[in-house]
Design a protein that fits this description.
Elements: H1 9-22, H2 35-62, E1 71-79, E2 82-91, E3 94-103, E4 113-114, H3 122-135, E5 149-155, E6 162-168, E7 175-177, E8 182-186, E9 193-198, E10 205-207, E11 215-218, H4 227-236, E12 240-244, E13 247-252, E14 255-261
Parallel strand pairs: 11-12
Antiparallel strand pairs: 1-2, 2-3, 3-4, 5-6, 6-8, 7-10, 8-9, 12-13, 13-14
């Protein structure tokens, strides 16, 4: 499905209501948090994803566009008001830090430095384990929505474990991947999946024409927008209007507001 760029906003939202009303197959619902928590987590996902992207650009620029040999991934750690991105090398069962890049609060990457101590602290080992564990719990069929998935790993604010998102991504600047994302609850050591949640029922890439004022979508796995919608609004720099739980919701960055009853079905 692709967004029709010239259809009036409420008309498009109304058009999205009909398939929801006709759906017969029960849909597995995912956990939905308070709007404040959802906004905060969506913002944190965006900032970590941005830090990883900016640090990757800096690393490639320092190595003539070719990734250094032996890299097996990265982790992103909050640092001051920004993040520290650590690129890892070695075996996945025993990773070591190879390069460190600081990314400030405005998303500016600093210089690439060799890690002064390649040994990862236990919490950083667990964070990388959580990423690997989430990745190994998806099949090829699960990953059908995108050629590439980006991982974000955050401390779970409600436990001592991890929240991991595998996010469908794209290299097309005018496409916003609204569907195909997954959320995992992972144990504190990063080795056990406690819960896996599919955050949409299908793949959904929306076109964002140059004159777009908003994107629209429907949500059937939760009664409200999720943290991925906050992330996508920040990523695409555009409001998202979503029909969920019989309501129309407005997502403008971290701000999620109830915009009233969903338009009547046409």
């Amino acid at each position: 499905m692709r967004c029709k760029p010239y259809l009036p906003l409420l008309g498009l939202v109304a058009a999205l209501v009909a398939p929801l009303a006709q759906a017969q197959t029960p849909v597995t619902q995912v956990e939905a948090w308070s709007l404040q928590k959802t906004g905060a987590l969506g913002s944190a996902i965006y900032l970590q994803d941005r830090a990883a992207a900016r640090a990757t650009d800096a690393l490639l620029a320092s190595s003539n566009g070719t990734p250094p040999q032996g890299l097996i991934g990265w982790i992103v750690i909050p640092k001051n008001q920004g993040h520290l991105v650590r690129f890892l090398t070695g075996d996945t069962s025993n990773p070591s830090a190879a390069f460190d890049i600081s990314v400030d609060a405005d998303g500016r990457a600093g210089r690439v430095t060799a890690a002064s101590d390649p040994t990862l602290p236990p919490e950083q080992r667990a964070q990388f384990n959580a990423r690997l564990t989430a990745g190994t719990n998806l099949t090829t069929s699960d990953l059908r929505c995108a050629a590439r998935y980006n991982a974000v790993m955050l401390d779970d604010p409600d436990s001592d474990g991890w929240l991991v998102w595998l996010l469908a991504s794209t290299t097309e600047s005018t496409v916003v991947p609204m569907g195909g994302h997954y959320r995992f609850h992972i144990s504190a050591d990063g080795k056990t999946v406690l819960k896996r949640e599919q955050l949409s029922t299908s793949c959904l890439n929306l076109e964002k024409p140059a004159n777009s004022v908003a994107l629209t979508t429907s949500i059937v796995v939760a009664p409200q927008p999720l943290e991925v919608h906050v992330f996508l609004s920040l990523y695409a720099r555009i409001p998202i209007y979503a029909v969920a739980g019989g309501k129309l919701w407005s997502v403008q960055g971290a701000s999620i507001t109830d915009a009233g009853a969903a338009p009547a079905r046409r």
